[in-house]
Amino acid sequence: MRRTRLDAATKDLDPPFAIVDLDAFDHNAADLARRAAGHPIRVASKSIRVRDLVSRALERPGYSGVMCYSLAEALWLSEQNVSEDLLVAYPTADRASLQKLAANETARQRVTIMVDSMAHLDFVDAAIGPHSDIRVCLELDVSWRPFPGLHIGPRRSPIHTPQQAKALAARITQRRGFKLVGVMAYEGQIAGLGDNPPGQPLRALGIRFIQSKSGPELIQRRTAVISAIRQVADLEFVNGGGTGSLELTGSDPSVTELAAGSGLFGPTLFDAYQAFKPEPAALFALSVVRKPNKRTATLFAGGYIASGTPTPDRQPSPYLPAGLKTLGLEGAGEVQTPVTGKAAEYLKIGDRVWMRHAKAGELFERFDEVHLVHGDRIERTVPTYRGERRNFG
């Protein structure tokens, strides 16, 4: 029984604390590699935020390179020799980090920054002055636009068509001090949007319809974009996908690598997919501190709300013992989280409840360390980014 095993492994710890179950983590890593079907997976660090676990994933077959969420983070991971291939997934306006990048030859060879307009290159030039070649990746907008005025997908790059992409790529290659090495195209309306949301059958039908139409359109358009860009630039990589779209993105002949991170931890938002089911690997434990009534137990702390839309699915969820749920009018709170259900009848003061976060790496912004559990013991305890005094926003 998993609850018994985790309780035994952590019996000497006082909640709140966080763990990663290495058995589940390794299972998920193998399953992601299977789904990638031979494409290398770039590890999305924002979904991990534990340096030791980023390295653990990279040591496995099928994984290569890191997708960072901040330039400062990429520079730090380079200093720590975590990887020699660090792609910053979002454009940066961090002048201090750009100056560090320009001054460090090793970092310039390892780190690729994201751009989607000439304004980004102008900003870099203004921040650091004359410089040697800085590696850049062009981000493509891969939202679905079935008719004018309707945009389905993340609001990211303004570059949507092959013509726009080729024109920008040509200007980048002509710009002194920059080297265009890659293209990224993240289909958030597929990779990050579960097609089987629990208890929402109409929403599920709508999402499946969108994804069934968006996927084929994207493959056709992305293939055309990459063909157009390759006429003016030699690309080292074309990155796409995420945990929720590995099969679809891997079927695109223009894509050379995939990206994934959340699937290693299996947060609750990834319960909403039909095609795959990651094991919950990242958990946190809370103590029972009150029994307001027979069927309610109140836990200390727990209000670790995920970013995104302020909807109920962004709250953490009770996991073990099974059969618990939070209260609709109180939810997970800053200092107390009531849970109710038949299982609450058997909880006593001091018992622990295991919780799952809605997202992956955001959990570890709450803890300085994470206990890595193997079987019924703690294999070791390692710092999170926060525990290493690294806050990248």
Please tell me about this protein's structure.
With 393 residues, the chain is of the alpha/beta class. Helix content is 31%, strand content 23%. It is built from twelve helices and 17 strands. The strands form two sheets. Strands 1, 10, 11, 12, 13, 14, 15, 16 and 17 form a nine-stranded mixed β-sheet that branches. An eight-stranded parallel barrel has the order 2-3-4-5-6-7-8-9, surrounded by five helices. Helix 8 crosses helix 10. The two termini are 38 Å apart. 47% of the residues are buried. The model has no long low-confidence stretch (mean pLDDT 93). Residues 20-190 form the Alanine racemase N-terminal domain. This is Amino acid deaminase/aldolase.
- Total helices: the number is 12
SS elements, strand count:
17
Series of secondary-structure elements, N-terminal to C-terminal: HEHEHEHEHHEHEHEHHEHEHEEEEEEEE
Helical residue percent band: 25-40%
Please summarize what this structure is.
The protein is 31% helix and 23% strand. By secondary structure, it is an alpha/beta fold.
What keyword list fits this structure?
alpha/beta; 8-stranded parallel beta barrel; 17 strands; globular
Write the layout of secondary structure elements.
Elements: H1 2-9, E1 17-21, H2 22-36, E2 41-44, H3 51-58, E3 63-68, H4 71-79, E4 86-88, H5 95-103, H6 105-110, E5 111-115, H7 118-128, E6 134-139, H8 162-174, E7 178-185, H9 188-191, H10 201-229, E8 237-240, H11 246-250, E9 257-260, H12 262-265, E10 282-293, E11 296-300, E12 317-320, E13 325-326, E14 336-340, E15 352-356, E16 369-374, E17 377-383
Parallel strand pairs: 1-16, 2-3, 2-9, 3-4, 4-5, 5-6, 6-7, 7-8, 8-9
Antiparallel strand pairs: 1-10, 10-11, 10-15, 11-14, 12-15, 13-14, 16-17
